[in-house]
Amino acid sequence: MATTVTPTRNARLRKFSVTGIATAGAAAAALTLIPTSAHAAEPAKTTEVTKAVQAAKKDHPDNLDGWIREALDIMKDKGIPGSYEGLHRNIMRESSGNPNAQNGWDVNAQNGTPSKGLLQVIQPTFEAYHVEGTANSLTDPVANITAAANYAADKYGSIDNVDSAY
Known about the structure:
By secondary structure, the chain is mainly alpha-helical. It is built from 7 helices and no strands.
């Protein structure tokens, strides 16, 4: 005796089969989303500024030469003109290379805002010309250099053009 299958039964079987495959597929897909020891956490995304600062911090020593070289790397990335010689010359004139130097006698000091750091920057100038990605500290050597070079670029074209107090 031949068994006849009605169209309704076939439709139900197809529906069951498709539903079963879809459910199994969804379960398999869900399993691949569950973290395992083989899945490594992705590092946090960094901003372009952070990348520039990290790139600048290559292997520069924590001394005047290293601070100038690190500042030059950041300045290059930010399009701030200046040379090693121009920065070094101005630093030696302004602070003799002491990142904690502070002028307590000039007109700025008399007005309550003494010049500080390697390039003797006052706080309002530092705030106006601070280079994003460097420390927000007037006496941080690299932040002081880059802010001063940024100021000098705006006022004189480059720190290389500064040959006296600025």
